[in-house]
Design goal:
Elements: H1 16-39, E1 52-56, E2 64-69, E3 74-85, E4 88-99, E5 103-106, E6 113-122, E7 136-139
Antiparallel strand pairs: 1-2, 2-5, 3-4, 3-6, 6-7
């Protein structure tokens, strides 16, 4: 009995562990690229991209200085101020500002408030051309206050 021998050369496959290893590296590279994109973000390459790398200077206690990377001529900044009282978040105000450089400074900040900022690109006619950026927050804790129920107990009603 004769073995069934093919008449043409059969291409050899690499061993299974090598095939899986190659696919694993490709999957790992794509996963790292997507992780970098969603966590850090890529720098904007045109004015239509939303601003990236928003950052608040936390060293300054008198003002909030917000900086970002962008290539648009005009930006719109939204500033949301909220206060937390007994675990409940209540929005106290939201303001919109137009700035002409990738820097925004808000003065007269108060302790106990949480400040949240988002930025989007606009064209010279002040029409939005990008989506809102990711928001950044800064919570200013109360310092030097001693709010304690036992220091000032409620008086009973007689």
């Amino acid at each position: 009995m004769r073995k069934n021998i093919p008449r043409y050369p059969v291409p050899r496959k690499p061993p299974a562990h090598r095939r899986i290893k190659g696919k694993r590296y490709i999957f790992l590279a794509v996963a790292l690229l997507l992780l970098f994109h969603f966590v850090v973000g890529f720098p904007p390459t045109s004015p239509k991209h939303r601003p990236a790398y928003l950052r608040i200077d936390k060293e300054n206690t008198e003002t909030n200085v917000l900086t970002w990377v962008g290539r648009a001529p005009v930006y719109e900044v939204t500033s949301i101020r909220s206060i937390y009282f007994q675990g409940i978040n209540s929005i106290s105000s939201q303001d919109f500002y137009v700035v002409f450089e990738p820097r925004f400074e808000e003065t007269d900040i108060l302790e106990g408030m949480t400040y949240s900022y988002r930025v989007r690109s606009m064209d010279r006619g002040q029409i939005p051309i990008s989506r809102w950026s990711r928001h950044v927050k800064r919570r200013l804790s109360l310092t030097g206050t001693r709010l304690n129920v036992f220091d000032h107990p409620p008086t009973p009603i007689r």
